[in-house]
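Folding Query — how this chain folds
Tokens — whole-number codes for backbone shape
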Amino acid sequence: MPDLRLVIFDVDGTLVDSQAEILGAMTHAFGAVGLAPPTRAEVLSIIGLSLPETFAVLCPDLDTGARNELVRHYRASFHDHAVADLKRRSPLFPGALDVLHRLQAQDDTLLAVATGKSKRGLDRLIDQHDLRGLFISGQTSDFHPSKPHPSMVLTCLADAGVAPQRAVMVGDTRYDMDMARAAGVATIGVGWGYHAPDTLGADRLIDTFAALDAAIDDLIGDPA
């Protein structure tokens, strides 16, 4: 039986540049409840967390009910834009599509996603960029505790039937790295995302997707 390996990807800031949509939805949500929106730096610092955790970090003095209103308006902003403009999309980072197809074509390499997005948001993005069939597992914030809890990575491992030592997490935030490490999985940080690369604490850092294959092979071994 082949010794399968698994590459788990974060989405926002790793595969897609979604900051424009995220910042727009934040501005809408805070405006809808009469609050000044956070700065761009503050928003980018919490990308990767689930929405309840996001607003707990951004608005620690608000009660749960008020934060739930922010979550509702944030989600409504994404939904309204998706309905109003079917062409609206977060662009893939350069090289992302090529590397996904290149890795997926390897017989013993499986791909998965672990993201703070909702399932609806992930499904929309997969449809927009024609990524159907690439991922054996797609874990979202709807069904798991927020990163850096390891639940999403552990579920990806179970779905793929792959041991932690044959898996690697690719992400752009410290939340991704801590989540993977808590599950016993190696980490690769990307240099184009929303957290400064020197804050990630990743096992490897890459500056382009062209460098990903070698980093994966180095950390968890070549395809069997």
